[in-house]
């Protein structure tokens, strides 16, 4: 066995899984669509063209603002995120949004590249992009394959409850770099930083739920590392791992 758990911890994991299973993305949708329309501008009031709007529904991937910064779409998700490379991402509450909206986004410049891993022996990876360092107090399992992904678990052990878990996964099921809609929709606070890896965007997103639990997701195309619903103390330890991530470059023979 890779991980030793006492019976109390096992019971806690089962109960936690049951509680989480009752909160599905579908259960968070609004009862009827809300029409959102308006204009995306910069801090000087100039229109920003071609902004992408994510997390608007379960069946619709995204909407896009036009060349003059205007947008007009219907959303059933309780929150949406306006994104564009080189600009701050903006979370907007859908419920109660009426009239013409004015979304202000700030220019942040070119995304900072991920550092190249100095030593592959000091970090672990489930794919060929993200490599996460080993941090004291956080156990690391062995990579295990599923049908279309490779998964790797990071754990903070507890003797009196379920272990706290952060995952790193790679594979076709991971999709794009955006965090899951469920995390966005349950958040009362949200922020996001853009990075780049070999020219591709890496999103480092984090948020807080209404009960004070924290989440964070660092995602690239087909690969992501994330934790969800952690107390601030445990989140800070997982953040030490995520803050030290680097770009994995396979050896070429």
Characterize the structure shown.
Helices cover 14% and strands 40% of the residues. The chain is mostly beta strands and 253 residues long. The chain has two domains: 32-104, Immunoglobulin-like (Sandwich), CATH 2.60.40; 111-247, Jelly Rolls (Sandwich), CATH 2.60.120. The protein is globular. The two termini are 34 Å apart.
Give the percentage of residues in beta strands. Answer: 35-45%
**Could you list the spans in which at least 5 consecutive residues all have pLDDT below 50?**
1-21
CATH architecture of the largest domain: Sandwich
What is the domain total for the residues? 2
Query: Termini separation (Å)?
Result: 34 Å
Spell out the helices and strands N to C: HHEEEEEEEEEEEEEEHEEEEHE
Number of strands: 19
Shape: globular
> Which CATH class of the largest domain?
Mainly Beta
Helix content: 10-25%
Radius of gyration: 19 Å
- Roughly what is the average pLDDT, rounded to an integer? 87
Structural class: mainly beta
The CATH topology annotation of the largest domain reads as Jelly Rolls
Largest sheet: 9 strands, mixed
DSSP helix count?
A: 4
Short description:
The chain is mostly beta strands and 253 residues long. The chain has helices spanning 7-21, 25-28, 181-185, 232-243, and strands spanning 34-41, 52-54, 62-64, 70-75, 79-83, 90-93, 100-104, 112-113, 123-124, 130-133, 139-140, 144-145, 149-156, 164-171, 187-197, 200-209, 214-220, 223-230, 246-247. The chain folds into 2 domains: 32-104, Immunoglobulin-like (Sandwich); 111-247, Jelly Rolls, CATH 2.60.120.
